């Protein structure tokens, strides 16, 4: 970074540094005593030279900013969803002038990403008012620019709380984006039908015609989902417990009658 002029120093945000008083950002990073260990997590990893973060957290921060940049188009595509008709709602019905349905999970993930990126940006322009940003740059472009040029700025900020807040906000945003843009790892059909009921639209209550599918999510968790209704799902462990219970009941109430029917059939023959 080019050495700032006296006029630029006057515009920079000031930070309190022990033994130096309140001084501009560019001077604060020169005189700050940085921590020996990374400020994130268990604080057992040695921090990089003149930085608040270890090398692993430094790479993670860069990765998360790049992820926000790289998957923004995926978020835009996932935001507008073709939702299924809700109970009692006829397919194809609409209200003129009503807003298009959106996936709220995607909207929340985009909101977290905007908050993370613009929070860093606000601090950056206070510390480096000579840094030029255009009004046409969106969240994805700004995240990419931060990843390319300003990870070191975030990691070595003279105020540890700025580094910590930026790291946590970016990490949370990136994890949410992964959840809503990354497809399931695998799906496995199950030879069983859905045991839930649904309303076909005429007010009646009928057995759901869907088949069950095992879905392994990116975080490793497995759920059992219905092929017809996404609201019909159950965690894998609960489903296995129900299957065990059903098998026991089936053996209890069908084994004896089956033996009697077979015996009667043999006698009749």
Topology (SSEs and partners):
Layout: H1 6-11, E1 14-17, E2 21-24, H2 25-31, H3 55-70, H4 72-79, H5 104-127, H6 139-149, H7 151-155, H8 160-181, E3 186-193, E4 197-198, E5 206-207, E6 211-216, E7 222-226, E8 233-235, H9 236-268
Antiparallel strand pairs: 1-2, 3-6, 4-5, 6-7, 7-8
Helix pairs in contact: 3-6, 3-8, 4-5, 5-6, 5-8
Provide a descriptive summary of the structure in words.
The protein is of the alpha+beta class and 269 residues long. The chain has 2 domains: 159 residues, no CATH class; 68 residues, no CATH class. It is built from 9 helices and 8 strands. The strands form 3 sheets. It has a 4-stranded antiparallel sheet with strand order 3-6-7-8. The chain has a two-stranded antiparallel ribbon with strand order 1-2. The longest helix has 33 residues. About 6% of the residues have low confidence.
